[in-house]
Amino acid sequence: MTVQISFYSYFKERAGCAQVTESVASPCTLGELLDVVYRRFPELGAMRKSTLVAVGVEYQDRNYLLRDGDEVSLFPPVQGG
Fold first, then answer.
1. What sign results for the dihedral spanned by CA atoms 50, 53, 57, 61?
2. What CA–CA distance (Å, rounded) separates 81 from 67?
3. pLDDT > 80? residue 67
4. CA–CA separation, 69 vs 4, rounded Å?
5. CA-to-CA separations, 29 to 14, 47, 57, 70, in angstroms, rounded
6. Predicted confidence (pLDDT) per residue in 16-65, tens digit
7. pLDDT class for 79, splitting at 50, 70, 90?
8. Are 74 and 51 in contact (CB under 8 A)?
9. Structure confidence at residue 81 (pLDDT)
10. Which residues of 48-64 are buried (b: 16+ CB within 10 A; e: fewer)?
11. Residue 80's pLDDT is what?
12. Any alpha helices (H) in 1-81, and if so which ranges?
């Protein structure tokens, strides 16, 4: 199945692009997809534990089961002052 991945804020800079399309086997959890992303973009791995992940418009946990055509968004942790 195919999943669209969007990078936001400094994730976009570290990945070197705003979006990628990834083909993964079905079934695939969000956690398994993230493993693929971190192998493809190792510079994002340092933020592995604090990455915020949404599928569509809702944040999801790593056990979420992806569907073909899902749009996944990766955000760095929120910073405040």
1. negative
2. 37
3. yes
4. 7
5. 24, 19, 17, 12
6. 999 999 999 999 999 999 999 999 999 998 888 889 999 999 999 999 99
7. low
8. yes
9. 55
10. eeebebbbeeeebeeeb
11. 57
12. 10-15, 30-40
Q: How many CA atoms lie within 13 A of 12 on its CB side?
A: 7
Tokens of 59: 């944040």
Determine the residue type at 2: T
User: Which domains does the chain show, CATH number per domain?
Assistant: 2-75 (3.10.20.30)
Model pLDDT, residue 52:
93
Sign of CA dihedral 21, 56, 48, 79: positive
Structure tokens at 39: 């192998």
Stronger pLDDT, 63 or 81, i.e. the higher one: 63
The pair of structure tokens assigned to 19 is 């979006």
Contact between residue 44 and residue 37 where contact means Cβ atoms under 8 Å apart: yes
